[in-house]
Amino acid sequence: MMFKLEKPQKVCQIGSFKVGGQYGENPPLLISSMFHNGDRILESRKEGKWDKAKAEEYVKRQEALEDMTGIPSIVAMVANSRDEMARYIDWFTSISDRPFGIDMWVEKPRLEAAEYVAQKGLQDRLVYNSITPWDKDIPGQVAKLRELGIKHVIVQAYDVTDPSPQGRLTSFNKMMESVGEGTFESVLVDTSVMNLPAIAFSGVANRIVKEATGWPCGVASSNGTYMWKEARELFGTDGFAAMNAAGQGCSALFWTDFIFYGPIVAAPRMFPAVVSGAVMAATMGFYETGRLPSNENHPLYKFFGEFAEKLKGGDEQSLPVHD
To answer: By residue range, what is the domain housing residue 32?
Structure first.
């Protein structure tokens, strides 16, 4: 079979949503970015000033799209220091009761931010992004996160000496020697996108890692789409938006359990794009296994319930009748 995986798959529970599982079983978790460099709502990173009204509008719009589509989502907030991230966490938790992510490249302030989360008693809601191959002290980081009670982590898998899909598995296995299988409730594997066409390699890596380990895998497909800077010049703003949505919607077909989709401002385009990929993945999964998603909140049921009932009943599908 092309899409079905032989190894039992782990399904991680983060807040009210499920991440992972067999191909097409659950729609991918969408992870947006806020307070990244270039984010227009950020007025002064150093002074801790941002447009709170506009930021809240974006968060509430993403939550409304999540409720409408059945596609789960979180906001990953970008910061350079513990104090900066603390401001964002305080603000976010004052307007929302949903899970959130921290997105910090440097290990020390990232750990300090996790410590702040633990002090606030928010461990259940945090998605820690991420433990990377470039971190200086992975065992020490893991020990500290465990001590803090952090439950959900993203592990980045990439080997500069072997950038192939198989190299992602080698990297992840090496990382897990330090992380340990039972340390965290959720281990989400980021298979490291390099550019737009290489999203395909990350998709293949998703399949390889899921088949070998069962852990949920995902991609930062926005790294591929937004890095193609010439696309804006070639196709204009509308053309770039179409390419971006198509590239990330296609990612949902590549054994993908979560997608970093980039700036939250793009949510109105990203959710419909990923609905398209998610309902096709669910139908392809049905074709191979004869089973529809067990997730009752799946967009297949929200938007194509009649079609799903026909599949469930074994009815033959016919072409629509036109006037």
So the answer is: 22-289
CB 141 within 8 A of CB 184: no
**Residue among 222, 280, 216 at smallest CA distance from 19:** 216
Report yes or no on 262 lying in a domain: yes
Token readout for 115 is 């410590």
Tell me if 166 sits within 8 A of 132, measured CB to CB. no
**CATH code of the domain covering residue 97:** 3.20.20.20
CB atoms under 10 Å from CB of 272, counted, come to: 15
Longest dimension (CA), the chain: 68
Among all chains, which residue has been given the structure tokens 């989400």?
188
Tokens 């980039």 sit at which residue? 262
**CA nearest 30: which of 220, 168, 199, 300?**
220
Q: Could you count the other beta carbons within 10 Å of the beta carbon of residue 233? A: 9
Q: Is the peptide bond before 130 cis (omega within 30 degrees of 0)?
A: yes
Pair 112, 82: CB distance under 8 Å = yes
Cα separation values, 5 from 1, 25, 91, 194, 211, Å: 8, 12, 41, 25, 6
Each residue's pLDDT expressed in tens, for the chain with a length of 323 residues: 689 999 999 999 999 999 999 999 999 999 999 999 999 999 999 899 999 999 999 999 999 999 999 999 999 999 999 999 999 999 999 999 999 999 999 999 999 999 999 999 999 999 999 999 999 999 999 999 999 999 999 999 999 899 999 999 999 999 999 999 899 999 999 999 999 999 999 999 999 999 999 999 999 999 999 999 999 999 999 999 999 999 999 999 999 999 999 999 999 999 999 999 999 999 999 999 999 999 999 999 999 999 999 998 887 565 555 55
Domains contained in the chain, number = 1
For residue 272, is it within any domain? yes
> Would residue 237 count as lying in a domain?
yes
Tokens at residue 96, please? 């929302």
Distance CA 213, CA 309 (A): 33
* Listed residue (301, 309, 291, 263) closest to 22, CA to CA: 291
